[in-house]
């Protein structure tokens, strides 16, 4: 016999699908099947329950580069010591864990006077800067499903990155006021390349790579009925820009979804700034909203917890005892590049695979700890690797969807025996840091 | 005017935060008291005298105090922060936040500075003889008020985001400027004597930008209005005047709409307009007929390499495409 668990939340991408059905064996130890999930989400469940290839105890790097198994107590002592001793520790990651664990981690950072940064640093951090500059008219994905008839995908490819986004919320679903589903919606895709998402588009604006800002400002001018200079604007014919402006104005409710194509190409926060202003302008004619396509399943939650505790969503510098925030100075990449930190703590992220090589070398040079269920490029260069249980599979916890809706992730199976969750590990480190700082 | 001379003893291990190095804090203090001021490195607090030797004498008030900083201070932040009077002279390079929130006095850096110099400045004079990085005279994060008064002179090149949200004062750049000059500007003047890279005056509501070396690529939301003769540095020059940013809201004065203005020196504008041509126009494209022919040829070739297809295109249509373009073409035809 097998057990069936319904309404499971998928801990993969920011869409946080909450309608998964997971089948486990009788003991609740092995996952036999996953229904409703996309290929990536299903794979995350199935592969986490295969314990044969997982590291189940912390490992410490030896002088020859090999790893030796250590106990959790030794790992806690090591982590607490390097954090308490450091003048400016960098604590990076936080996006693939629960809000509860984030909260404990931030307390450690405050005690140690460190820098807390989450994966928004290489992702939607620029969005957060723009939001701070000009505000954000946003909505939930439920509203998109039930009301939206104009959808823009700007610099994102949900067909591959958020596989169920289009079917659950943005293009295909039949909602309360959108009974005809995809037939009722007009889709605009802005991407320099033809993608699987752009094949679904009514208008594909093939913008010249790196000139989104120009196109956004041109669209804003076109909406105001102003003349545009030149026949080709950022690689798009002028007529197409006017046509797109007309489509946007004629809708009843529209949404702009944007991804890393605009947040991390030339201009960064200015692109989002202009996109938000475009949304604001369109509200003169119809109803419009803008939503960021967040990547990690709880990167939004990490920003929420940081915002609640320190007032800033990422790149928070606590070294002077009060919170300071200035991406460009206190962000993880700048701090590593400029060699401002003297210890590195990574949780629930993989900077070793995504940061510039200079920063990765810096992580390898400094005393470091990586907390991750998997073996990743980061865990291979850190002094100590602490494996933990999967959040959303082996432990529950609070997570935030890309539209800032909190969803409680559920526990489906038991973790391997004797394994700690990151919340338990961080709590133990916090207790030890308190003892060390008291002396 | 009395002079205090600070000499850096050693380069700090991490970066040093020394917001107390201003005439306002030094004024009326003995050298002993100045040496006891705090500097910060990470979560540690040190004395100024741990990193600097203090010589000379401070004046009674800020306006009578001059600080000369010798030695390597390229890892020291916040020099001259919030100064209101007096003088500071840095003989070498300095790090971030030089003259940030400065309200008066004179600050001279003989070398180069990092980002955030003179942010949210309201008065005084900040002169940088070398290069400066990003966010010079810009607003602090989330603030809508950038530089509001005073003057910043950078003799070398500057990075991006210079003068974001500027609404007063002057920024004079001797060299080239990177992208995003005067974004969201609501007043103020910026002079670029070299080449401005692009996105000049994006989302600008009001203000003047003079580009003496031209703009590599103008925003599409600026319209050419007229040519004007203007006196700059005692020399009369002809400028093409562009109005914008047309995507933004603009106020009215005496029935006329007030735009942000970009002045581009004529003479350079011809080379500018050549550069303005979008890259995509230079790209070679195949006609629909040729694409169809290529599609059928591809089927016969069975998994051809990019170079083979490129040779085929060159032989049959006489078009020399870049390999990256060819590979993109192949993948789009496969769809």
Automatic annotation (TrEMBL), chain A:
Key words of the record: Oxidoreductase
Domain Molybdopterin oxidoreductase: 54-431
InterPro entries: Formylmethanofuran_DH_bsu, Mopterin_OxRdtase, Prok_molybdopt-oxidoreductase
Annotated Gene Ontology cellular component terms: membrane
Gene3D superfamilies: 3.40.50.740, Dimethylsulfoxide Reductase, domain 2
Pfam short name (any one): Molybdopterin
Keyword Ribonucleoprotein applies: no
GO biological process: methanogenesis; respiratory electron transport chain
CDD domains: MopB_FmdB-FwdB (cd02761)
GO function terms (MF aspect): formylmethanofuran dehydrogenase activity; NADH dehydrogenase activity
Protein name per its UniProtKB record: Formylmethanofuran dehydrogenase subunit B
UniProt lineage: Archaea, Methanobacteriati, Methanobacteriota, Stenosarchaea group, Methanomicrobia
TrEMBL record, chain B:
BP-aspect Gene Ontology terms: methanogenesis, from carbon dioxide
Catalytic activity: N-formylmethanofuran + 2 oxidized [2Fe-2S]-[ferredoxin] + H2O = methanofuran + 2 reduced [2Fe-2S]-[ferredoxin] + CO2 + H(+)
NCBIfam families cross-referenced by the UniProt entry: one_C_dehyd_C
PANTHER family in the cross-refs: TUNGSTEN FORMYLMETHANOFURAN DEHYDROGENASE, SUBUNIT C (FWDC) (PTHR39673), TUNGSTEN-CONTAINING FORMYLMETHANOFURAN DEHYDROGENASE 2 SUBUNIT C (PTHR39673:SF5)
Pathway participation: One-carbon metabolism; methanogenesis from CO(2); 5,10-methenyl-5,6,7,8-tetrahydromethanopterin from CO(2): step 1/3
E.C. code: 1.2.7.12
A GO molecular-function descriptor: formylmethanofuran dehydrogenase activity
Protein name: formylmethanofuran dehydrogenase
Top EC class of this enzyme: oxidoreductase
């Amino acid at each position: 016999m097998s057990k069936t668990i319904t309404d499971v939340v998928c801990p993969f991408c920011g869409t946080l699908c909450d309608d998964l059905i997971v089948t486990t064996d009788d003991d609740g130890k092995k996952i036999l099947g996953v229904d409703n999930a996309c290929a990536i989400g299903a794979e995350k469940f199935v592969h986490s329950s295969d314990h044969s290839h997982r590291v189940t105890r912390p490992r410490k790097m030896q002088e020859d580069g090999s790893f030796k198994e250590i106990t959790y107590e030794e790992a806690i002592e090591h982590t607490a010591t390097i954090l308490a001793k450091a003048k400016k520790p960098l604590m990076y990651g936080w996006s693939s864990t629960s809000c509860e664990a984030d909260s404990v981690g931030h307390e450690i950072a405050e005690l140690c006077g460190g820098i807390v940064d989450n994966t928004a640093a290489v992702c939607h951090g620029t969005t957060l800067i723009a939001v701070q500059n000009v505000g954000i008219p946003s909505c939930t994905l439920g509203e998109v499903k039930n009301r939206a008839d104009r959808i823009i995908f700007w610099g994102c490819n949900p067909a591959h990155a958020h596989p169920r986004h289009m079917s659950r919320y943005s293009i295909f679903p039949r909602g309360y006021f959108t009974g005809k589903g995809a037939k009722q919606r007009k889709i605009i895709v802005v991407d320099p390349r033809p993608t699987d998402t752009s094949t679904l588009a009514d208008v594909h604006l093939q913008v010249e790579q790196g000139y989104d800002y120009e196109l956004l400002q041109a669209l804003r001018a076109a909406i105001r009925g102003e003349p545009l200079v030149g026949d080709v604007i950022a690689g798009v014919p002028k007529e197409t820009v006017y046509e797109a402006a007309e489509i946007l104005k004629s809708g009843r409710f529209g949404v702009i979804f944007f991804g890393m194509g605009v947040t991390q190409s030339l201009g960064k926060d200015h692109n989002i700034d202009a996109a938000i202003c475009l949304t604001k302008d369109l509200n003169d004619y119809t109803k419009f909203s803008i939503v960021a396509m967040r990547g990690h399943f709880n990167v939004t939650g990490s920003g929420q917890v940081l915002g609640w505790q320190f007032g800033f969503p990422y790149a928070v510098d606590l070294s002077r005892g009060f919170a300071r925030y200035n991406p460009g100075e206190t962000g993880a990449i700048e701090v590593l590049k400029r060699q401002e930190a003297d210890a590195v703590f990574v949780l629930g992220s993989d900077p070793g695979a995504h940061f510039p090589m200079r920063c990765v070398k810096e992580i390898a040079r400094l005393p470091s700890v990586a907390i991750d269920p998997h073996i990743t490029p980061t865990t291979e260069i850190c002094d100590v690797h602490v494996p933990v249980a999967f959040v959303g599979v082996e432990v529950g916890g609070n997570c935030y969807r890309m539209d800032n809706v909190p969803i409680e992730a559920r526990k489906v199976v038991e973790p391997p025996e004797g394994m700690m969750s990151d919340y338990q590990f961080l709590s133990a480190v916090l207790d030890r840091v308190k003892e060390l700082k008291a002396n | 005017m009395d002079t205090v001379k600070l000499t850096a003893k050693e380069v700090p291990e991490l970066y040093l935060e020394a917001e107390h190095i201003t005439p306002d804090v030094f004024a009326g203090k003995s050298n002993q008291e100045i040496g006891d001021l705090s500097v910060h490195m990470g979560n540690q607090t040190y004395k100024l005298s741990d990193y600097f030797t203090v010589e000379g004498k401070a004046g009674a008030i800020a306006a009578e105090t001059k600080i000369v900083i010798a030695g390597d201070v390229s890892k020291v932040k916040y020099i001259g922060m919030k100064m209101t009077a007096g003088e500071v002279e840095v003989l070498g390079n300095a790090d971030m936040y030089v003259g940030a929130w400065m309200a008066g006095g004179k600050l001279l850096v003989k070398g180069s500075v990092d980002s955030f110099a003179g942010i949210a400045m309201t008065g005084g004079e900040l002169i940088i003889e070398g290069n400066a990085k990003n966010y010079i005279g810009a607003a602090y994060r989330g603030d809508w008020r950038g530089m509001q008064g005073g003057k910043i002179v950078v003799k070398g090149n500057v990075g991006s985001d210079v003068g974001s949200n500027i609404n007063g004062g002057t920024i004079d750049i001797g060299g080239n400027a990177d992208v995003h000059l005067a974004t969201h500007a609501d007043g103020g003047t910026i002079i670029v004597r070299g080449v401005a890279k692009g996105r000049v005056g994006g989302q600008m509501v009001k203000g003047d930008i003079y580009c003496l070396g031209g703009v590599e690529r103008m925003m599409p939301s600026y319209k050419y209005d007229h040519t004007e003769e203007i006196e700059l540095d005692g020399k009369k020059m002809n400028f093409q005047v562009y109005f914008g940013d047309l995507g933004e809201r603009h106020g009215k004065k005496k029935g006329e709409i007030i735009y942000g203005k970009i002045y581009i020196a004529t003479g350079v504008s011809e080379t500018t307009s050549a550069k303005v041509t979008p890259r995509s126009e230079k790209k070679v494209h195949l006609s629909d007929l040729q694409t169809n022919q290529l599609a059928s040829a591809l089927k016969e070739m069975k998994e051809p390499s990019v170079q083979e297809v490129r040779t085929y295109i060159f032989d049959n249509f006489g078009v020399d495409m870049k390999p990256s373009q060819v590979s993109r073409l192949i993948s789009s035809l496969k769809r």
